[in-house]
Design brief:
The chain has about 525 residues and is α/β, with parallel strands linked by helices. The chain is built from 19 helices and 21 strands. The chain has a seven-stranded mixed β-sheet, sandwiched between helices. β3 and β4 form a beta hairpin.
Length: about 525
C-alpha cells in the first residue's frame, strides 16, 4: 500500500509525487492516458522529421518557478533553449513590436513607437523591485503570509496603492496610461490574451505586465528536443526516488470511508489503497462531480460548482513548414512567439466575439516558431510551427462565412484551420505555400487527449478575478485541502491556476505532508 496515490501524471501531479517522494513517502501515480505529461507532450505526429509540441510549448512560468528550480531537473538531462527574440507583434503596415532578451534591446526597438522606450524601462524597473517577491507569493499556498509581507513592503516602495491600481487596470487602460505609442501597448495586450482576459477586463493589465516582464527577465524558453523532455525529466526523477507511474489506468472514483479518502478505484475494477493521502491532478468539476460522491461533499460546494467557469476553448494547428515564415515585418522572424492580430483593437474585437458566443472571423493567433527557438525540432532551413486561437465554450454563431457550429466534424475542422492560416497569411504572404503537412487539434480532440482541457481550455478554469485566489475553484477555497480529509486538489484548478510551474502540485504535496507533521522534513531534504 503506497503512502499516497496521485491521480493524473500531468506536470502538477508529477511535481506533487516528486515532493512526496523527497519526504520519504511511497507514491503511486495513475494516469488515464497511455503516456504521462498531460499538456506537456511532444511527438512527431505531423511529419517524421519534425518534433511538434502537442499542447503547451513555451515556459516562462517554468523558468521563473522556485518549485521547479528546487527539483534540479537539469540533473535529469533537461536543457532549455531560447529564440533570438522572445515575442513579436507585427502590424500590417510593417511595423513590429518586439520583446527582446535584453531590456536595452527591447527599449531600442520600441524607440520607434513614440516614447515607448522610456515607459517600458519604467515598467521593468518596477518589476526588478517587486518581481521576485511577487513570483514567490504567487507560487505559495494562499494566503502567502511570509512572501506576502515581503511583497507588501516592496509594493509600498514601488508606489503602494498606485502600483496596486496599476495591476488591477484593464490592459487597454494600462497601455493608454503608460505609453504614447503602439509598441508597448501591443506587447502588454498580446501577452494578456494568453489567458481568457479581454483587453477591457479588470486585472488584464496586471496579467499582461506579469507575462511581459517574465519574458523580459526569463525569456520564453523551450525544452531542447520538445516539451516531452520536461515530462521525461520529472518522470525520471520520480522513479529515481522510488515512485511508481502506471499509465493507461483510469481512475473511476475516490474511495471515501468515514469522511477520509483511503484510495481510488480504477475503471478496471482495481482498488489502489493509500495509507496517507490521495492527490488529484484533475479539474475541479471532475473531482467533485465525478470522482467523489456528492454524499461526501457540502451542498454549498456542489451549488458553487454549478457556477464554475471554464476559460476559453482552444483550436490549434501544427505545421511542418518547408522554409521560414515570410513575415512582412522582418523583426518577427527571430521571435519564438508571434502575436498575430490587428493591434489592440483587433484583440478587443476578437474577445468581444467570443463573449457573444461567436466564432471569430479574424482569429487572434498565438504563433510558435519552434525551430527558431530550438534548432533540434526540424531540419535546417525548415520550421516546426503551430498556432492556436481561442473560441467560445458554447458556440452560438459564426462571425465568419463557414457556418461553424461546434460539431467539429471534418468540414468544420478544415474550415477553421483554413481561417487561422488565412489570418497568418495576411501578415506573412506566401505562408500557405510553405506548408508541407499540418495537423488539426479541435477543442474536442484536445479534450479527448487530456480530460483536464475542457474543449481545450488550457487554464483549468477562467483567469478572471472572480475565480482567483480565495475564489479558486469556488468561493472560500483557494487552498489544496478539500472537504474530504486526506484528499487534495493538485491541479491548475487550484490556486495559483494555469501555466506550467508546478505550484498547485507542490501546494497539495506540502498540505498532505503538513497534515502528517512532515513538512519540515521535506524542507530539510530539499536543502541537502
Amino acid at each position: 500500500m503506497p503512502d499516497a496515490v496521485v491521480i493524473g501524471a500531468g506536470p502538477n501531479g508529477l511535481v506533487a509525487a516528486n515532493l512526496l517522494a523527497d519526504a520519504g513517502w511511497s507514491v503511486e501515480v495513475l494516469e488515464a492516458q497511455e503516456e504521462p505529461g498531460g499538456a506537456v507532450l511532444s511527438d512527431r505526429g505531423v511529419h517524421p522529421d519534425y518534433v511538434s509540441d502537442v499542447f503547451s510549448a513555451f515556459y516562462p512560468l517554468a523558468a521563473a518557478s522556485p518549485v521547479l528550480a528546487r527539483l534540479d531537473l537539469a540533473a535529469e538531462g533537461l536543457r532549455w533553449s531560447h529564440a533570438p527574440s522572445v515575442v513579436a507583434h507585427p502590424l500590417l503596415d510593417g511595423r513590429c513590436a518586439v520583446l527582446e532578451r535584453r531590456v536595452q534591446d527591447t527599449c531600442a526597438g520600441l524607440a520607434g513607437f513614440a516614447a515607448d522606450a522610456d515607459a517600458w524601462e519604467d515598467l521593468y524597473r518596477t518589476w526588478a523591485q517587486v518581481g521576485p517577491d511577487l513570483v514567490q507569493a504567487l507560487f505559495t499556498p494562499f494566503p502567502p503570509i511570509r512572501s506576502g509581507l515581503r511583497l507588501a513592503a516592496r509594493l509600498r516602495a514601488a508606489g503602494g496603492l498606485r502600483m496596486a491600481r496599476k495591476l488591477a487596470l484593464p490592459v487597454r487602460r494600462l497601455g493608454e496610461e503608460q505609453f504614447t505609442g503602439d509598441g508597448g501597448r501591443l506587447l502588454l495586450a498580446g501577452n494578456a490574451l494568453h489567458a481568457d482576459l479581454a483587453p477591457e477586463a479588470a486585472g488584464s493589465g496586471g496579467f499582461g505586465w506579469l507575462m511581459s516582464m517574465l519574458g523580459q527577465s526569463h525569456g520564453f524558453p523551450v525544452p531542447v528536443g520538445g516539451a516531452g523532455a520536461l515530462t521525461a525529466a520529472l518522470v525520471s526523477r520520480l522513479r529515481s526516488k522510488g515512485g511508481v507511474l502506471r499509465c493507461g489506468e483510469r481512475v473511476a472514483s475516490v474511495v471515501v470511508r468515514g469522511g477520509t479518502a483511503v484510495g481510488v478505484r480504477t475503471t478496471a475494477g482495481e482498488t489502489v489503497s493509500a495509507r496517507r493521502a490521495v492527490l488529484a491532478d484533475t479539474s475541479a468539476p471532475a473531482l467533485y462531480q465525478d470522482l467523489v460522491g456528492e454524499e461526501h461533499l457540502p451542498s454549498r460546494l456542489l451549488r458553487d460548482l454549478e457556477r464554475f467557469q471554464w476559460d476559453f476553448a482552444t483550436f490549434k494547428v501544427d505545421w511542418a513548414l518547408t522554409g521560414p515564415v515570410p513575415w512582412t515585418a522582418p523583426q518577427a522572424a527571430g521571435a519564438g512567439t508571434v502575436h498575430v492580430a490587428d493591434g489592440v483593437d483587433g484583440l478587443t474585437r476578437f474577445a468581444a466575439q467570443i463573449a457573444m458566443g461567436e466564432v471569430p472571423d479574424e482569429p487572434f493567433a498565438l504563433f510558435g516558431q519552434m525551430t527558431t527557438a530550438d534548432p533540434t525540432r526540424s531540419p535546417a532551413g525548415t520550421e516546426s510551427a503551430w498556432a492556436y486561437t481561442h473560441l467560445p465554450q458554447r458556440i452560438t454563431s459564426d462571425a465568419g462565412p463557414d457556418r461553424i457550429t461546434g460539431r467539429w466534424d471534418a468540414r468544420e475542422q478544415e474550415a477553421m484551420a483554413d481561417r487561422v492560416e488565412a489570418q497568418v497569411e495576411r501578415f506573412a504572404p506566401g505562408f500557405r505555400g510553405l506548408i508541407g503537412a499540418r495537423r488539426i487539434l479541435a477543442p474536442t480532440t484536445l479534450q479527448a487527449m487530456d480530460e483536464n482541457l475542457c474543449n481545450g481550455a488550457i487554464n483549468n478554469g477562467t483567469t478572471a478575478l472572480h475565480q482567483q485566489a480565495i475564489f479558486r475553484p469556488t468561493p472560500g477555497t483557494g487552498r489544496p485541502e478539500t472537504p474530504v480529509k486526506g484528499l487534495y486538489l493538485a491541479s491548475a484548478a487550484a490556486h495559483p491556476g494555469g501555466g506550467v510551474h508546478g505550484a498547485p502540485g507542490a501546494n497539495a504535496a506540502r498540505a498532505a505532508l503538513r497534515a502528517h507533521g512532515l513538512h519540515a522534513l521535506l524542507h530539510r531534504a530539499q536543502r541537502v
